Fold this protein.
Amino acid sequence: MIAPARVAAYNILCKVSAGRADLPAAIAGERPSLADSRDRALAAEITTGVQRQRAALDHLIKHFAKREIDRLDPEIVEILRLSLYQLLHLTRVPAPAVVDDAVDLAGRAGKRSAAGFVNAVLRSATRTRRNPPLPPRPNDPQLDAHAALDYLSVTLSHPRWLVARWYERFGFDATERWLLFNNTAAPLTLRANRLLTTRDDLKRHLAAEGIDTAPARFAPDALTVESGNAGDSVWFVVQDEASQLVALLAGAAPGRWVLDACAAPGGKATAIAAGLLPDGRLVACDLRARRVDLLRRTVQASGAANILVVRADLLAPLPFSSSFDCVIVDAPCSGLGVLRRDPDIRWRRAEEELAPLAAAQLQMLQHAATAVAPGGRLVYATCSSEPEENELVVETFLRGTDEFVGVDARRAHPLLPGDVVDARGYLQTSPHLHGLDGFFGAVLEKRPPRDL
């Protein structure tokens, strides 16, 4: 009998590769088929690991199969990927069990004629599992850029086009650190729900329940879980530390009105709402019905009574006649800054997508600007690492208007650490500098009207 976790992993990977679901949705869709929590955890571990190591796995498949990946049936490719991942990275699993399950999976997938091929490829790989034939780290990366890119893109498993961009921008060492960061599991980071508690009180509360946490390095309300199962609670929100820093750019103060124009899933909105009490309000918007529903659930769970959820499209003029003290555009983007948490994004993105994304982001920023009151603040943010979606969007926007001026992010909030603000005044977190996912944030202010 095939291990249930491997069957689930196969189903998940097939859905992701066929474009029927992203990795989180595919994992969530398969969970009901697994009664045992250990099987659910193993299926998630295998599929996440395969997405992180896909380029290296495909290189090995090609090596042992002696044929190109696109000449193999898609079902066989997924079986080989998940099996090779287990052989190389989950060594607690006996190799014969992995191989036997792979052969049985081929039959289950209707590819019984390929069972012998699957068996041969995996047995060959087993013999070299301690030293797989992957491009080595070059002795002097500066002297051989081709070898450096082979190692970075294949052995460290990222798209070559993206690796080449980072290699040119940051150099070999920083790029290597970034890729290694992306290939590690992200810690569980919590944000204390300031509507109900403080970070110190939350830490004590969790400790009493056997959950050990440590204050995060940069975000003032963040705790990193070191041991124990935090589960769900009204006392905190699960939110990446870099994302928490973006919320600080709003500089929320009591009595202000804030518009979060791309608010789902709601982590930043609920963080900002706590700083607006007692009489400030936040309007949280998103477009797709599923994301609006998620946003409503986050708001309700947080207990934030001063948030109004509205469905709106930021690619069209906003349906607001009043002006806001602050408008936040956490723009839909490539997601290339969060490949650690969403490893399948690296294989779903292409370089030619950046320009259309930037054009849409500029349009959103322009629409959002119309809702900012004179003297108010406009915040633009992404979870992208790429300049086209970040500073170039901001600079293009500023060239097209004399109503707004850039402001150094250090001025946005007294608790925003200067270490995460670059020389141009932008919030810019990077794995190789801060040990955080790549987020970008810019603060713009609308000039007050001139006296007549």
